[in-house]
Automatic annotation (TrEMBL), chain A:
The NADH:ubiquinone oxidoreductase 30kDa subunit domain, residue ranges: 42-142
Organism: Geomonas silvestris
Pfam families linked: Complex1_30kDa
Lineage of origin: Bacteria, Pseudomonadati, Thermodesulfobacteriota, Desulfuromonadia, Geobacterales
InterPro entries given in the database record: NADH_quin_OxRdtase_su_C/D-like, NADH_UbQ_OxRdtase_30kDa_su
Signal peptide feature range: none
Name the UniProt record assigns to this protein: Hydrogenase subunit CooU
GO molecular function, one term: NADH dehydrogenase (ubiquinone) activity
UniProtKB/TrEMBL annotation, chain B:
Pfam family, one: Fer4_7
4Fe-4S ferredoxin-type domain sequence ranges: 161-190, 194-223
Lineage, uppermost ranks: Bacteria, Pseudomonadati, Thermodesulfobacteriota, Desulfuromonadia, Geobacterales
Coiled coil feature spans: none
Protein name: 4Fe-4S ferredoxin-type domain-containing protein
Length: 178, 297
């Protein structure tokens, strides 16, 4: 077994217990390792983060997102991406659509400060124990959870425009048609 | 001796309103005004900074939530009768900003519009041609067209202009709809086949549809004069239908496999590959597997 796999397995077992299993690891064409692991509840993330900080892991990014279905979001998740000397480990945390709460990692990783403030502005997620819970970039006049109310630009530019004007176009074609 | 002189027509005065545009159309409008070879001065016009003195109103940009009140107040200062001209797809349909929380489009829901000059932005030549039509409208259509037309060599080589669609080359992959930044392309299942519609009043002339089309079914035409009366707004479309044909083996209706795609897949057409063109995907797999069996036995 590769060193990083064994080290992470030992740390997770120490924090969460042996019965929880190990991350799924992949190796890319250049030998880079990436591990994927799903956490059980929000309380586990600070415990695991502290243990990974003990391994000198770096928190490289935190991504919050809605889990889509064809019609509506069916849940939400946060992916915490760690770097362990060139290998990546992603810890995914499932959260409910209503009343999502997650403990802050800013006391463990200072760079979590901006990332947590960002996702609490964009999504309906409460961050517990954040030392600096002010707005990061969205104007104070706007309510939080913007991405759950407004159209993300990435969706917008894929032609996800409303139907109203298209109905006018179709009606005009029907007038022209004999 | 008595000489009878016909008095010259009074100069029409143009007033510009920017509702919150990216300034692309405003740059083109400034170029239209400043560069004499585009011929705006030959139309007998002058710009005014006083809305109460204006006859024609030129509006650029999508009407934003923040600017709405001021824009409408300024527009109301222009005395009636007046001709209102929308420049660029933003005021006409909202363009790339349609359905944004910050935009209240289209503008014709708030002010009466006479003429639209689509584009993103329209070229100076298109703006001049559109304003010429507006002048004609103002003068009751009694005068002959006053468009000076573009001078030779005044159009750039990389001008794209209106897109043209060829249904006979389309495979219905819908990549054009996916990459269209303005949401200007739609596919609809119709009785006759797969219907394609491109609405020029939302098209940004970006050329992404043509760039990504694997079979060249969409191509730029360099046609730049798309100015039209407001009544024609929703009729400015490029349309086509890809008819479904029955699979020659199982009879299931299918989109035809066009020669452009076959050339990409097989480089050169042969009698064998030509037979595959009339088969649906499942029958094509069966036929291909039979070929493999023949080769291995």
């Amino acid at each position: 077994m590769h060193d990083v796999e064994a080290t992470v397995a030992r740390v997770l077992e120490g924090v969460l217990g042996a019965q929880r299993g190990e991350p799924a690891w992949r190796r890319d064409a250049k030998g880079g390792m990436s591990g994927w692991y799903r956490l059980g509840n929000p309380e586990e993330i600070p415990m695991v983060a502290r243990a990974l900080a003990g391994l000198e892991a770096r928190l490289s990014m935190v991504s919050a997102y809605l889990v889509p279905s064809p019609q509506n979001a069916i849940g939400r998740e946060i992916a915490y991406h760690f770097d362990l000397d060139g290998s990546t480990l992603t810890l995914t945390l499932e959260l409910p659509l209503e009343g999502a709460r997650v403990p802050s990692l800013t006391q463990v990783y200072r760079n979590a400060d901006w990332q947590e403030r960002e996702f609490r502005e964009l999504y309906d997620i409460e961050v517990l124990g954040h030392p600096n819970p002010g707005r990061l970039f969205v104007d104070r006049s706007l309510e939080p959870a913007l991405f759950e109310r407004l159209i993300p630009y990435s969706t917008f530019i894929n032609g996800a425009n409303g139907e109203r004007l298209w109905r006018e176009v179709q009606a005009a074609q029907e007038e022209v048609a004999p | 001796m008595h000489t009878c002189k016909v008095p010259p027509l009074p100069k029409l005065r143009l007033y510009r309103i920017n509702t919150g545009s990216c300034n692309g159309c405003d740059v083109e409008l400034a170029a239209t005004e400043a560069i004499t070879r585009f011929g705006l001065d030959r139309l007998g016009l002058s710009f005014t900074a006083d809305p109460t003195q204006a006859d024609l109103v030129l509006i650029t940009g999508p009407l934003t939530v923040s600017s709405r009140e001021k824009v409408l107040a300024e527009y109301a200062e222009v005395p009636d009768p007046k001709i209102t001209v929308l420049i660029g797809v933003c005021p006409i349909s909202g363009g790339a900003f349609r359905d944004s929380y910050a935009v209240v489009a289209p503008l014709d829901e708030f002010v009466p519009v006479d003429l639209n000059i689509p584009g993103c932005p329209p070229r100076p030549q298109a703006i001049v041609a559109g304003i010429a039509k507006a002048v004609q409208l103002w003068r009751g259509g009694e005068h002959p067209p006053v468009s000076p037309g573009p001078e030779e060599g005044s159009l750039t080589e990389n001008l794209r202009g209106r897109m043209r669609y060829r249904a006979e080359a389309c495979v219905g992959c819908r990549i054009c709809q996916h990459v269209c930044a303005g949401g200007a392309i739609r596919f609809d299942e119709e009785e006759a086949g797969l219907g394609f519609t491109l609405w020029h009043n939302s098209c940004l002339f970006c050329g992404m549809c043509s760039h990504y089309c694997p079979t060249g079914a969409l191509a730029p035409t360099r046609e730049w004069d798309l100015a039209h009366r407001q009544a024609e707004k929703y009729r400015q479309v490029e349309k086509g239908v890809v008819p479904r044909i029955p699979c020659s083996a199982c009879g299931v209706p299918m989109l035809p496999v066009v020669p452009e795609l076959m050339k990409k897949g097989y480089r050169a057409l042969s009698a064998e590959t030509a037979r595959l063109q009339t088969l649906c995907s499942e029958c094509r797999q069966v036929r291909s597997l039979e070929g493999v069996k023949r080769c291995t036995t």
